[in-house]
Amino acid sequence: MIELSAGQEMVLPTEGGVLRMGLGWDKNPSAGPFSSGVRDVDLDASAVEFGGGQLFDLAFYNNRTTRDGSVVHLGDNTTGSGEGDDETITVDLARVHRQIDTIFLLVTSYQGHSLEWVANAYCRVVDEHDVELARITLTLGVPETGVVMARVSRDGDGWRLRAVAEGIAVTLPTESGLKLKRFL
Prior knowledge:
mainly beta, 1 helix, 2% helix
């Protein structure tokens, strides 16, 4: 396993070509109806596709599959409770439309909480054999409501994963198009 820091990148294995993004988090202990009354934090994993600098498609809790079927969101966890990955997205790189050159792995706070309310947030990328290729840990409180965790981009006939780990002010993945352009 390789833990990437912001700005670091790696070439993804070309055999198989199926990746899984796992998002995990814990709520802030002072949140929730039985503590301070602050609502539980609902983070959402999303994949946002670009081609030629233009937003092409996305997969998230309310649009679970891209039109080409290459990216699938496997379900929404609204509290971060439970062990392991709380939300998962699969990306079949061999099925991605040829005109798509970039896929952003994005995390947003549905209810608009800043990510300072979240503990132990991580994004990990594993292959089809469940081998962890990379883990990106969000170690500092982020005052924004979203974070670009990683960018997956075409690299010749293959793909490259770059850790971004930078906050952006979005609560819904459908708002992210213009704000993600600066990371292209």
